[in-house]
Design a protein that fits this description.
Layout (H helix, E strand, L loop, with lengths): L3 H7 L6 H16 L5 H29 L11 H4 L4 H24 L5 H14 L13 H22 L4 H24 L1 H7 L4 H28 L13 H12 L8 H23 L4
Helix pairs in contact: 2-3, 2-7, 2-8, 2-12, 3-5, 3-6, 3-7, 5-6, 6-7, 7-8, 8-10, 8-12, 9-10, 10-11, 11-12
Family: Belongs to the MenA family. Type 1 subfamily.
Enzyme class: transferase
Pfam family, one: UbiA
Length: 291
């Protein structure tokens, strides 16, 4: 039986910046419009955190029962390691997704009811990433989904629920956060190319190959720099976002130096830290009275 610490590890806490950063960025965009609402931001954060935890447990369950996780170099997987039964991990996934749904419905009802449909699509995307008979994560569309749901939808959705509109600032933030969030998955799949290939999991990294995947990661890491320069048109204080450049360079170093296997694991945490740091700095720049 898995211990509480192992359940926490199975939830993949290193991916939590992917959930927090979009809400921070979206709230910053709403603040720029003088429309930030703290309790709606808290609800949005609850949705995002529960959703990503649900995705991670669902991924653990689906990959585990398929045997994809039988030979891994990455973080602990509960089903693949035999520490928890598939039923227990499935229950954890469904519970987390249910919490995301309940919080999402509450947020939609106080913002705009049509957002319930958006939430339903998000939950379906979370499950079918590796679940179902034809998971899209096994067909090379995982990075696209992360860009859309943890970038465009999460950032713009957070801004919309507070300001009831989305502006060009919110879109720029969404593209930047989506790129960094996708970069986390790209780094993860770069590490897993050998084992995914053997298991028949055709991720985008498997399709692009080692060199192509490294190029994709580095290109995605450049997008926030371009967005930072563009956001200076809204407020010059947004240029403070370049302060995360050392974090980004440190995260990317193993990738451009050709690291493989376990040596790529720190890239995930480093990319997540870059994303969260950038979101916080730029959100403050957009919110601050002098902005």
């Amino acid at each position: 039986m898995a211990t509480p610490a192992q359940w926490i590890t199975g939830a993949r806490p290193r991916t939590l910046p992917n959930a927090v950063a979009p809400v921070v960025a979206g709230t910053g965009a709403a603040a720029f419009l003088d429309s930030a609402v703290w309790w709606k931001a808290v609800l949005a954060l609850s949705v995002s955190l529960a959703l990503i935890i649900g995705v991670n447990y669902a991924n653990d369950y689906s990959d585990g029962i398929r045997g994809t996780d039988d030979d891994r170099t990455g973080p602990l997987r509960l089903v693949g390691s035999g520490l928890a039964s598939p039923r227990a991990v499935l229950t954890a996934a469904v519970t987390a997704l249910a919490v995301a749904g309940i919080c999402g419905i509450a947020l939609a009802l106080v913002s705009n009811p049509w957002l319930i449909a958006v939430g339903a699509v998000c939950i379906a995307a979370a499950w079918f990433y590796t679940g179902g008979s034809k998971p899209y994560g096994y067909a090379g569309f995982g990075e696209v989904a992360v860009f859309v749901f943890f970038g465009l939808v999460a950032v713009c959705g957070t801004e919309y629920t507070q300001a009831l509109r989305v502006d060009v600032v919110g879109l720029a933030l969404a593209v930047a956060i989506g790129s960094l969030s996708a970069a986390v998955l790209v780094a993860n799949n770069l590490r897993d190319i050998p084992t995914d290939t053997a298991a028949g999991k055709v991720t985008l990294a498997v399709r692009l190959g080692d060199t192509g995947t490294r190029r994709l990661y580095l290109n995605l890491m450049v997008v926030p720099a371009v967005a930072t320069a563009g956001l200076a048109a809204a407020t010059p204080w947004a240029l403070a976002g370049f302060a995360v450049a050392p974090l980004a360079l440190r995260a990317a170093r193993p990738v451009y130096r050709g690291a493989t296997g376990a040596a790529l694991i720190p890239v995930l945490a480093g990319t997540g830290a870059t994303m969260l740091g950038w979101a916080i700095i730029v959100a403050v720049a957009l919110w601050a009275p002098w902005g």
